[in-house]
Amino acid sequence: MDTSTHTFTALFEQLGLDSDKDSIEQFIRTHQLFSDEVPLHEASFWSEAQAEFLRDAITSDSDWAEVVDELNTSLHA
């Protein structure tokens, strides 16, 4: 069983996105979700595979859930 804690960098790599600090900060700045009514996985900027990964991470409470929740909070700030 993998008990490692995932990081933002690892999450962005998993999503196939640039994962350096500047790219992550830019992504968060340019992809803000201004309504709490929009679930993270339903945002229009995700591919189908990315959205499925994010939804599954939360609904199955996977080891990715904590960092996905952090991303959700960052994008809804």
Fold and architecture overview:
It is a single chain. The chain is mainly α and 77 residues long. It is built from four helices and no strands. The longest helix is centred in the C-terminal third of the chain and has 12 residues, at 48-59. The protein is globular. The relative contact order is 0.20. The mean pLDDT is 92. It comes from Marinobacterium alkalitolerans. This is DUF2789 domain-containing protein.
Structure at a glance:
InterPro entries: DUF2789, DUF2789_sf. Helix content is 52%, strand content 0%.
Helix and strand topology:
Elements: H1 8-14, H2 21-30, H3 48-59, H4 65-75
Organism: Marinobacterium alkalitolerans
Pfam families: DUF2789
InterPro entries: DUF2789, DUF2789_sf
Mean pLDDT: 92
Number of helices: 4
Q: Compute the number of strand runs.
A: 0
The CATH superfamily is known as Uncharacterised protein PF10982, DUF2789
- Pick out the low-confidence regions: none
Helical coverage, percent range:
40-55%
Distance between the termini: 33 Å
Sheet-strand content, in percent, reads: under 5%
CATH class: Mainly Alpha
CATH architecture: Orthogonal Bundle
Shape: globular
Q: Which secondary-structure class do the elements indicate?
A: mainly alpha
Secondary-structure element order, N to C: HHHH
* Main β sheet profile: none
**CATH T-level fold name:** Arc Repressor Mutant, subunit A
Rg: 12 Å
How many independent structural domains?
1
